[in-house]
Amino acid sequence: MSRLRVLAAMSGGVDSAVAAALLAEQGHDVTGVTLRLACYGKTPLSPRACCTLDAIDDARRVAMRMSFPYHIVDAEQVFRERVMIGRDVLVLTVRSCRSITGSEDRQ
After folding, report:
1. Which domain holds residue 59?
2. What's the CA dihedral at 74, 78, 84, 89 to 10 degrees?
3. Can you tell me the distance from the alpha carbon of 91 to that of 66, in angstroms, rounded to the nearest whole number?
4. 61 close to 53: Cβ distance less than 8 angstroms
5. Based on the domain organization, do 41 and 61 belong to the same domain?
6. Which of 68, 11, 67, 69 lies closest to 37 in space, CA to CA?
């Protein structure tokens, strides 16, 4: 089997860590990456949520242990501008019973 260059998206969870570790063990050239988006804290609903600083540290530790490079890509501003604001517009549109074009829906 030929050696592959792999960019492993790592959330800090078990699944992505195991996938990256297995690929590294198989001799592939693995680089781990985590997108830093917007949710960094613990919440009452999920004290161990994805994207927390602890999860990012977990991903970093796996990469260090398996001796492959790891990077954090700060995509928070782009995420807020293109995803969160768009989501808010959609929610407000649905709540006001209007279509995206601004006309009222007929029932």
Report:
1. 5-74
2. 170
3. 43
4. no
5. yes
6. 11
58 and 101 together in one domain? no
Angle at which helices 14-25 and 53-66 pack, to 10 degrees?
Answer: 10
pLDDT on residue 94: 59
Q: Are residues 84 and 70 in the same domain?
A: no
Closest by Cα among 33, 40, 37 to 77: 37
38-57 residue pLDDT tens: 765 555 555 555 567 888 89
User: By the 8 A CB rule, do 12 and 58 touch?
Assistant: yes
Look at residue 107 in the predicted model and tell me its pLDDT: 47
What are the tokens at 29? 């050239």
Classify residue 16 by its DSSP letter.
H
Over 70: is that where the pLDDT of 104 sits? Answer: no
Statement to judge: residues 69 and 85 lie in one domain: no
Amino acid code (one letter) for 49: A
Residue 77, SS3 per DSSP? helix
Same domain as 98, residue 52: no
